[in-house]
Amino acid sequence: MRFLLPELVHRPSLGEAEPVARIVAEERIDAWSSSLVRASGPIASPAVTTFAVLAGLVTGTLAVLAVLPIPVPTAEERRVALVGAFVDRTVLGSIVGPVARGLGINGVLTGLVLGVAFSVGTALITRAYLPVIGLGALLGIGVGAAYEFVY
Q1: pLDDT for position 33
Q2: Is the CA virtual torsion 133, 118, 92, 125 positive or negative?
Q3: Domain coordinates of the chain in residue numbers?
Q4: For residue 92, which of 118, 128, 64, 62 has the smallest C-alpha distance?
Q5: Which H or E run includes 37?
Q6: What's the pTM value of the predicted model, to 2 decimals?
Q7: Contact between residue 58 and residue 150 where contact means Cβ atoms under 8 Å apart
């Protein structure tokens, strides 16, 4: 973004040029990079990354277990449904902790919002609104609560 800012800003009243734009850009970059690090540590610390991976695998597994009893016409459709549920909920479980940490918002609230947001597309496709959105909300709240308990 630095290329969008002029290198020097001329002040007609003083008759001289100052590198004001460069200083402003550097201050904005410093403010942005320091906002990524909270008092408790960086967003991508090894502990948070480990939590995200484990939470993603657990939520993906729980989603597969929830989809298993649903009758599906063909074996291929069953495989697609199971893989889709696993991937969708794994991503949900993986991002709740880092997003809550990065934004400084309660993990339970973050999990609820992200769980519902991730579920809307699947619910519209399957036309099973309550079960899909409900499962997403419950899994999101569960991961958020676990995040708040651990951190």
Answers
A1: 53
A2: positive
A3: 2-35, 40-150
A4: 118
A5: strand 37-38
A6: 0.70
A7: no
Residue with tokens 């940490």: 101
| pLDDT, tens digit, 9 for 90 and up, residues 56-107 | 999 999 999 999 999 999 999 999 999 999 999 999 999 999 999 989 999 9
d(CA 85, CA 90): 8
The backbone torsions φ and ψ at residue 50, rounded to the nearest 5 degrees and listed phi first, read -65, -45
Rounded-to-integer distance, Cα 70 and Cα 75, Å: 12
Return all residues near 35 (Cβ < 8 A) that are at least 6 apart.
none
Are 91 and 56 spatial neighbours (Cβ–Cβ below 8 Å)? yes
Say if CB 102 and CB 40 are below 8 A apart.
Answer: no
Phi-psi region of 71 (alpha: psi -120 to 50; beta: other; left: phi over 0): beta
